[in-house]
């Protein structure tokens, strides 16, 4: 499939009117996700199904199934061979994932934009990024996982790590009058930490990997 290059993505953000601080966030998510992809490719890539074969409804509607679905064999029982992560897809989805953040249901708005442009794989990643459940299996990750990890580890326009990012989300929820959200956020944090630990077994320290990232 054809993916928009970096220049095209930045032009889409500009044309859409995405605020500058959101563009900075998108650049950071793309940089973090891309770095994960590079490191994991060097460590053997992934055994997960390619994005084109993923049924997106499984990822956004059936939470329990979502963690397992995309790392299983396809409908005919075929096991997917190891493959490299599509770095172009990762960068494009990361750059465009929040292009419509000022709109209601911004994930669907941005995904629909990508569908109209013919970027169907980017649309799949973007549509589920707000409601995504990670697997704990670092051998069966997809480009969606890496984009969503980039989002979960970015604070504003820089890599921050899971602790700083989730502490910020908790304080924001409390400030906005939703203290009851804290247990769910902490649950998400714990789940993500398990996956990050499994990834580090493959690629080493994530914090060290993310040092001196080029966000531009």
Describe the structure.
By secondary structure, the protein is mostly helical. The chain has one domain. 59% of the residues lie in helices and 2% in strands. The chain has 11 helices and 2 strands. It has a two-stranded antiparallel sheet with strand order 1-2. Strand 1 and strand 2 form a beta hairpin. It is globular, with a radius of gyration of 16 Å. About 3% of the residues have low confidence.
In terms of DSSP E residues, the strand content is under 5%
- What is the helix tally? 11
Amino- and carboxy-terminal Cα gap: 25 Å
Order of helices and strands: HHHHHHHHEEHHH
Low-confidence stretches: 62-67
- Which bin fits the share of residues in helices? 55-70%
Query: Going across the major beta sheet, what is the strand order?
Result: 1-2
Query: How does the helix and strand content classify structurally?
Result: mainly alpha
Query: How would you name the oligomeric state of the polypeptide chains in this document?
Result: single chain
What's the total number of strands? 2
What attributes characterize this protein structure?
11 helices, 216 residues, mainly alpha, two-stranded antiparallel sheet
